[in-house]
Amino acid sequence: MVEFGQIWSQLGSTMATIMFVYTMFDKFFPPHLRTYFRKYTQKFASFMYPYIQITFPEFSGEHLKRSAAYTAIQTYLSANTSQKAKRLRAEVVKDSQTPLVLSMDDNEEIIDEFQGVKVWWLSNHTTNRSQSFSIYPASDEKRYFSLTFHQRYRDLITSTYIQHVLKEANEISVKNRQLKLYTNNPSKEWYGYKRTKWSHIMFEHPARFETLAMDPKKKEEIINDLVKFKAGKDYYAKIGKAWKRGYLLYGPPGTGKSTMIAAIANFMYYDVYDLELTAVKENTDLKKLLIDTTSKSIIVIEDIDCSLDLTGQRKKAKEKSDEEDKPEDSIKKVKDEEEKKGSNVTLSGLLNFIDGIWSACGGERIIIFTTNFVDKLDPALIRRGRMDKHIELSYCGYEAFKVLAKNYLDIESHTLFPIIEKMLGETNVTPADVAENLMPKSIDEDSDSCFNDLIKSLEEAKNKAEEEAKEKVDGENKELKIVKENGELGQEEK
Ligand SMILES: Nc1ncnc2c1ncn2[C@@H]1O[C@H](COP(=O)(O)OP(=O)(O)OP(=O)(O)O)[C@@H](O)[C@H]1O
Ligand SMILES: [Mg+2]
Question: Which residues lie within the region annotated Disordered (predicted)?
Fold first, then answer.
């Protein structure tokens, strides 16, 4: 039996010989012959080893940007093959529903199969030994994935398989991503190190269409519209229209406009960009903000009638020339301009924002305006094509009440329901008012007392409305009487 020590000494001497030959080759072989030698050894190796290898480095380009392909492959591999790998690396990923993502560790190899063809994925890194100074300090470790496959399947792998990996990775990251709520930073704070146009927080509003109190038929119609929009990529391309849809939500305060936006975002799984127009200085800034939004998003302008004086812009331009000579008016004009100094966004700027460069920004975007006073808005702003669907959110009806009762008290029928139904038909209360009454105020408050509270507040609302109507009629009569008396007086004087 050969002794262990003997094996070691033989191995040592073989290694030393190889190293010696290699050093001799590198030092004394003429460089042009060295190139030939390498070329032919590579040819010989590829003949003996018919596999192709593709490398996907983590950072690429001049500024060492993280490669999108590397990230996509990492996502794909961690979802599809992390069960197969024995050594895993755990990473905390921001903005993901699963904050801890497991991926292959260095030198770990796994086999994937695509249409019956085997491919090998290897995760590895190289260490950079060069000492360079850069304003973009590079990490010493350069990670990469390498994909190995038989050269027979070159076309299948380089086109179909890699496409499949990228597509699946995209679907996984969309599924795992957390919704975000963006708000625009004031224009003057956009520039400087690491400044952005939008700031975001995680969007975690619990509103759903199921919990939204409104006429069920109307709700169904909106849901169908959204479903059709989501699946309409090819249809929009066919008719030559940008893949976007505009909704105008209008109705009195507390009828669920903001709640509906949250429900739409959760239903579509879109990010929300809450655009505060008063923080936008110029029309051009508005365009920049739009370009900075991503697809699969909802751009919201709440209370559009209050955001800016968009209603009167056109009229003002027309009246401008008439007012030129009047000194009092010019003082007023200067005052108005001073008041608006924060923002110079005009109606035409906003119209351009909505439809001007939509097509340049890719698709799958919804734009929503909300207002309490739909009549105040310029018709150009809300015409079909810009705001495709006008949705009125109105006072609480019986159907809407039933949804609220189910949400707040988990009750679907009750002896007091007929009375409430009758009273809801006679008076206008918002779902927000009803919801407030249905919410138990203490641990021992039961559903009966909540419904009684609601009935009481409905009675009060009804009496108040009657009183107001009576006062209005009295006021009108009084005015009529004064006009009549003045008229008679005039006649007598005549
Ligand atoms: N239709 C509704 N379904 C369920 N809850 C509602 C509904 N309407 C109002 N609410 C409740 O009332 C509160 C206020 O509603 P919301 O903020 O959506 O009203 P709004 O129409 O946006 O009002 P505003 O015009 O003042 O912005 C919400 O927190 C929600 O709980
Ligand atoms: Mg609102």
Answer: 315-338, 466-494
Residue pair 249/257 in contact by the 8 Å Cβ criterion: yes
Task: Name the strands in the sheet holding 365-371, side by side, starting at the edge strand that comes first in the sequence.
Answer: 198-202, 180-184, 271-274, 297-301, 365-371, 244-250, 389-392
Q: Which residue from 324, 314, 319 is spatially nearest to 350, judged by alpha carbons? A: 314
Rounded-to-integer distance, Cα 28 and Cα 31, Å: 9
Q: Residue 434: pLDDT band by 50, 70, 90 thresholds?
A: very high
The token duo for 235 is 């249809």
pLDDT of residue 319: 46
Size of the chain, expressed as the number of residues it contains: 494
Phi, psi of 442 (to 5 degrees): -145, 170
For tokens 């990469």, the residue is 144
Asked whether 214 lines ligand 1 (CB < 6 A), one says yes
How far is it, in rounded angstroms, from Cα 302 to Cα 199? 17
Strand runs labelled E in 10-95: 51-57, 59-60, 65-66, 88-92
pLDDT above 70 as % of the chain:
79
Collect all residues with Cβ–Cβ distance below 8 Å to 195 and sequence separation of at least 6.
185, 189
- Backbone φ, ψ for residue 411 (5° rounding): -120, 130
Task: Return the residue matching tokens 């590895």.
Answer: 124
Cα 209 to middle of ligand 2, angstroms: 16
Q: In this structure, which ligand is nearest to the CA of 371?
A: 1
Residue nearest to atom 25 of ligand 1 (CA): 253
Angle between helix axes 417-426 and 398-409 (nearest 10 degrees) is 130
| Residue type present at position 446 | D
In this predicted model, what pLDDT tens digit does every residue of 131-144 receive, in sequence order?
Answer: 555 554 445 667 88
Nearest ligand to the CA of 401 is 1
Q: Is 253 in the pocket of ligand 1 (CB under 6 A)?
A: yes
Distance between CA atoms of 267 and 88, rounded to whole angstroms? 34
Please tell me if the CB atom of residue 434 comes closer than 6 angstroms to any atom of ligand 1. no
pLDDT tens-digit map of 227-284: 999 998 888 888 888 888 999 999 999 999 999 999 999 999 999 999 998 888 888 8
pLDDT of residue 181: 94
- The better pLDDT of the pair 175, 70 is held by 70
CA 396 to ligand 1: nearest atom? 1
User: Which ligand 1 atom lies nearest to the CA of residue 262?
Assistant: 18
**ipTM of the complex in this document:** 0.98
